[in-house]
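Wed. Picked up where I left off yesterday with Putative dioxygenase. The coffee machine is broken again, so keeping this brief.
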Amino acid sequence: MHKSEHHAIFYPQDKDELEEACTKREPKKSLTKLPASILVPHASYDWSLDLLHDGFAGAQTLHPQLVVLLGSLHQEQLQGDLPCFIFAPSGDGVSIPTGKVLFPTELRDELTARFSDALSLQDSYFIEEPCIELTLPMIHSYFPQVPVLPFLMGNLDARQVRTLSALLSQIAEETKDVLFVVSANVTAILPSEIATEQARQFASLLKAGAPLLEEQRHGKVSSCGISALEALRGQTWGSSHWDFISFQCKDQKFDEVPDTFDEKDKIVWHCAALRGEA
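Structure written out below (tokens, as returned):
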């Protein structure tokens, strides 16, 4: 059982405080059928808690048998891990202040064998990268006792995205009642004008169910979750269109990305969104 590494930095270390922070809230929009996906930010609870709840509350009426958590690898991949480009943790779970989150070890090991040239068990990335762990208390609150299968990946090319999409399809085929959670921010940390323009473009593309990789290659979008989102776009279940609940920058929350956001410092945009039935 892994121990938590990022409490007190990204989320409360105290059990009671964390339980209060993660207490379920009423949904603003709701999904109705599985498989489904939600998009939530990865940032300190001081900044992202409202949006985390917006996303998870939208799925709380569902009854998933599995949660697949897709996170972004922000560090350089180790040469020794090639040719793999998708990573999962070893062990049987992780202990967080509010309890234990279990991994579906049989499914994970089956996928690792089937996608051996793409998927590898590597704990070091999960120690360094906080986006997976900071999302676990929310999953544990909204879907207690449901196993969680976390994956990390960097910026993937088209071939690698197809492989990731095939892996996700295999999971959905074996576990029909699955919820996919993408932990990602809308933009990189950029000057205000550029970040806001990219946030609008990102939202427009996801609402339309449009491809993302070319837009990323041309510098028009910079979300760290594009690989995961593009792999989900390739799924045959549900709609390819995302329904946005809320956006946030700094401490300001919006229903839509505004035309301008005046800020001298560099900024990052966050959001909560749902992808469900066609």
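Quick read: The two ends are 38 Å apart (CA to CA).
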